[in-house]
What we know:
The protein is an alpha/beta fold. The protein has eight helices and 15 strands. The chain has helices at 11-20, 36-46, 62-67, 83-86, 103-118, 125-134, 183-189, 234-244; strands spanning 2-7, 27-33, 50-54, 74-79, 95-98, 141-146, 149-154, 158-164, 167-172, 175-179, 195-199, 202-205, 209-216, 219-224, 229-232. Strands 2-1-3-4-5 form a five-stranded parallel sheet, sandwiched between helices. Residues 142-246 form the HTH LytTR-type domain. Keywords: Phosphoprotein.
Amino acid sequence: MITAVVIDDEKLARDIVRSYLKAFPQIEIVGECANGFEGVKTISELQPDLIFLDVQMPKLTGFEMLELLDHIPVIIFSTAFDQYAIKAFEKSAADYLLKPYSQIRFNEAVEKALSKLDAQHVHGLKDIRQTREQYAETLDRVVVRVGHKIIIIPLDKIEYIEAQDDYVAIYSEGKKHLKQLTMKYLETSLPKDGFTRVHRSFIVNINQIDRLEAYSKDAFVAVLKNARTVPVSRSGYTLLKEVLHF
Length: 246
């Protein structure tokens, strides 16, 4: 038996999936979730083979939810996005369903998912992150997982970000949070009027800067309002001068 979880904030959408799945007796729905927070908990506990995932949900989007998972099932996205925008999801999903969809279109998506399961092809976190980075959007927050807790960090609460091997360390309100993202993605996706890459390994929230100080002939440090210091390269200093108008 193939296990599945349905994650959608609309009950009608979940009911449609449940109804259409009657055509596939080999698939058992073991969980339904109305938001991404429930989705993370349910998938972590049940580790289903397949998930039907709405992209646009309040509080936590489908992509944000996937980034918090250790176990990534085969995915069928559902969304109200138009077909052009949805191309962003094709690399990390068995298929996508553009709402409203028919039983025939649903069956096609499920058959693709079954083929992937038969081939033991389960998408990993790397696929999800690479797809999101390829189609980078402007971030308005960062979501991290700490143990069993999901923490949403507003951008204005981020002090600075530091590259650490395959992760980034996000410093916010005196705490350090690790997340597996690239500096290149963050540099592209964070709003330019709020964040600047001041060093190969550091991005700083310019609203958190108190002052700049010379460290050596070609290097500087940004002293933040909480007295922490962030190294600033020569090119980073030039960027800050332009952004801060001094």
